Amino acid sequence: MSINTMDSLQQLLIFALAASGLGIVSSSKIRKALNWWTIHAVFLSALILIEALHSKEWETFLVVIVSLGIKAIFIPWLLGNVIKNSHTQWVGELFLTRVSSLVAAGVLTLLAYLITQPLMSLIEPTMRNGLAIAFSLLFYGLLLMIIRKVALVQVLGILLIDNGIFLAGFLLTQGMPILIELGIFFDVLIAALILGVLAKRMIRDYDSLNVDHMNSLKG
Amino acid sequence: MDFIISLFAGATNLLIILVLAPLLQGLIKKTKAYWQMRQGPGLFQSYRDLRKLWTKEEVISEHTSWIFLRTPEVVLASTIMAAFVVPNAFGWAPFSGYGDLFWFVASFALGRFFIALAGLDTAGTFGGMGTSRELFVSVLVEPTFLLGLLVLAFLTGSTSLQGIIWGLTNVSIASTPRLLAIIALIIVTIAEMGRIPVDNPDTHLELTMIHEGMVLEYSGRSLAFLNYAEQIKQFILLLLLVNIIWPTTTSNGFGLSAVLIFGQTLIKIALFGLIFATIESITVKVRLFRLPNFLISGTAAAVLSLITFWLTRGRI
């Protein structure tokens, strides 16, 4: 694989990451959002795989396997189980409808390109999109957590933020030390597990995933 | 000497397009028949149809004007005009110059203009209906077509189709702008060929027909002209698409390797014909008012390809 092809593939995967992030924002059902997340995780692993093929370090290959296992297989399986138990597919679009949240996400993408402008001179030119899109993924996650009322979609928001930070770190450092990477993955895993348990309890107690029910606990 | 060789090569290229266009049509029909579990007409049925129409008597309504009479010639001529700038299997076009991608799109637009007028000219209801639908589709398709080709022109730094094909050999197939432009051009090709999600070429059912509605009043030799023009258009659109996806360029046009490259390109075109026939067999025609959704996704791909081109190449 030539450097030219490798570079194009990386760019393509970065754009695909942005597109699948937008897919999560615009999904009409939780199941669809989860499918988009799976695709997103696969794209992220593929991006690391290309870097691994480029640098030929076994540690990076290990990161690919762990990332694929946790983000693309375990988390979708865990959240898929929760979705099966819940009785609704509603994504909780109370504040913004799907179309207007997509417009908001587009504006946030522009904002991400704007705020990463001063950093452009620091990194190599082929990666300047990657940093901007890492920031826009972070923004999509924040947006999802603000505008959606259903706990599972908010979990996807957290995971999206994590992916954004991971992507930014990965692009800036060309592969962090293996221990730090594993630590990050473990954090994500535990967070997803806890939130999965929380969602299960919410279904048991309120028969719903709507986070508004949590307020009613206040005496 | 060089000039004479290139002229000869250009004429050969054109001749191949003219000869093989009905064969491609036959192949597509055969594939569709296979998917419908029929035996279908033979591969050479299109040639026989054209010969039959050529010898048939022509019926012309007395209310028509010269536009109706001249349209078949104009449509065939404009399609052949478009064929002049399409590069052949070796990446050489009979004629090439600055901006001939506009020439390519404009030739199709000229043919469409006349065929739309002819559809109105007979004052039949089907003709008017077909015309209005055709123009509705073309309004959505032509900007995408131009934009998709223009992105490729930006990508390769040339506005002639030959220059684009040569430039594309240096651009990776995985490059995002090129992939998105290819998606846009595939959707445009389906619409321009009048194939199934957009138009159904096999039926004269009034609810569905677009192209057939306009040519309904034609018979005999004029119909042969129009059908032939449609087959040539289909062939050169697929040739262009094949060249954009897998460009093969070579400067020595003689010898065994030339024959191999030529055969490869023919196989690729046949493959694309098979793929489009398969798409046609496994999808349904969309309702006319749902059509913008399908065509706009092509336009969106073209616009995104321009944006990603700007993001990956330009200073932000």
Give the arrangement of secondary structure elements.
The complex is a heterodimer of chains A (219) and B (316).
Chain A: H1 3-26, H2 30-55, H3 58-85, H4 98-115, H5 128-147, H6 151-173, H7 178-206
Chain B: H1 2-35, H2 45-55, H3 66-84, H4 100-121, H5 125-156, H6 161-168, H7 176-193, H8 211-214, H9 220-245, H10 256-282, H11 291-313
Helix pairs in contact in B: 1-9, 1-10, 2-9, 3-4, 3-9, 4-5, 5-6, 5-7, 5-11, 7-9, 7-11, 9-10
Outline:
The complex is a heterodimer of chains A (219) and B (316). Chain A is mainly α and 219 residues long. In chain A, 77% of the residues lie in helices and 0% in strands.
Characterization of the model:
The complex is a heterodimer of chains A (219) and B (316). Chain A is mainly alpha-helical. Chain A has one domain (3-217). Helix content of chain A is 77%, strand content 0%. In chain A, helix 1 (3-26) runs antiparallel to helix 2, helix 3 runs parallel beside helix 7 and helix 4 (98-115) runs antiparallel to helix 5 (128-147). The relative contact order of chain A is 0.14. Chain B is mainly alpha-helical and 316 residues long. The chains are: A mainly alpha (219), B mainly alpha (316). Chain A binds chain B through residues 2, 4-5, 7-9, 11-12, 15, 113, 117, 120, 128-129, 132, and chain B through 172-176, 179, 308, 311-312, 316.
